[in-house]
Amino acid sequence: MEFNLDNFKVQGVKVNYYYICKRKLWLYSKGITMEQNSDRVMIGKLVHENSYKRLKKKEVLIDDMLKIDILDNDYVREVKISSKMTKADKMQLIYYLYYLDSLGIKKKGQINYVKERRQEEIELTNEYKREIEKALIDIKEISQKKKPPELVKLPYCTKCAYYEFCFAKEV
Ligand code: SF4
């Protein structure tokens, strides 16, 4: 059966969370948002606003859902503090490229890792297209579940905004 993006559109952050932690994705999908309290998220926002100011960029809001930075008409850009979550960051950007591609807009992707002062270029391949379709199907399924995925401790849990939610013990 042909994949129909209209049935699976989500915010880019959900794709990111899908690759970080399925439980985090579920919590966010249910409207349980604690990210605004996270210093890391605040820092991320500031970095995004202040970095690479010299570059010509245009912020575009697509379908009231995806806020994308377009650079020099050729690239879509994501700014990240560090490359600790490379796979998640990459797939979020690939999702943007995929989404634009479905609208007939061909772009390449560029991730700027601010801490390492490093850039990575990404192109949308057929393999990536299939991978993102599978991820979008899974995201829908996880988001519709009544209960969150089982708690599994991950190396980055202590840095997660949901840490207390997941690990708080009664005293
Ligand atoms: S604290 Fe760990 S298990 Fe809980 S949502 Fe965050 S990453 Fe996932």
Describe the structure.
The chain is α+β, with helices and mostly antiparallel strands and 171 residues long. It has a single domain (5-167), classed as Alpha-Beta Complex (Lambda Exonuclease, Chain A). The protein contains six helices and five strands. It has helices at 12-20, 22-29, 39-50, 86-102, 126-144, 163-167; strands spanning 57-62, 66-71, 75-80, 108-113, 118-122. Strand 1 (57-62) and strand 2 form a beta hairpin. Helix 1 packs antiparallel against helix 2, helix 1 (12-20) packs antiparallel against helix 4 and helix 2 packs across helix 5. The chain starts with 11 loop residues before the first helix and ends with a helix. The model has no long low-confidence stretch (mean pLDDT 87). Residues 21, 23-24, 27, 151, 154, 157, 160, 162-163, 166 line the site of iron/sulfur cluster.
Concise synopsis of the structure shown:
This protein is an alpha+beta fold and 171 residues long. It contains six helices and five strands, in the order αααβββαββαα.
